[in-house]
Amino acid sequence: MKFTHFNKEGRARMVEVGEKEDTKRLAVAYGRIRMKEETIKLIKEGLIEKGDVLSVAQIGGIMGSKMTSQLIPMCHNIFISGSDINFNILEDAIEIEAQVRTVGKTGVEMEALTAVSIAALTIYDMCKAVDKDMVIEEIKLIKKSGGRSGEYIRKEAQ
User: Fold this and answer.
1) One of 92, 125, 131, 133 is an active-site residue; which one?
2) With 80 as the cut, is the pLDDT of residue 68 above it?
3) What percent of the chain has a predicted confidence (pLDDT) above 70?
4) Is 151 annotated in some ligand binding site?
5) What family is this protein classified in (predicted)?
């Protein structure tokens, strides 16, 4: 395995993808934000002062996916054909899953990971007044498809 983001002098570069074929691409990422049970209850009941936490986090995550190339230095600016965020509310945590799609020359793994991260950070921001002990964790790629390297599915996701 070889890193591709270095030039012959060993300095960072953006990889040339112009010769690659356009393919349908999908990436799914996961993350979780742990919090007090009381905070979960406030979110469910719509009692967080800043507003509807999950609606705002959904928009934040989608916006994050669209802005990834502005945040990650060597990430290509790509056309995103679809971006969605789903939440699973547990007793003491909220699970976040992002799905990002494109048709293009490079994948959307970074966009899906950024979407999850920004959604989790948005939840933290909206709830920090009542729970500063929240922990964002387990941000990871679950699967990706398309492109030269084909399909990847994380072992524990199978």
Assistant:
1) 125
2) yes
3) 97
4) no
5) Belongs to the MoaC family.
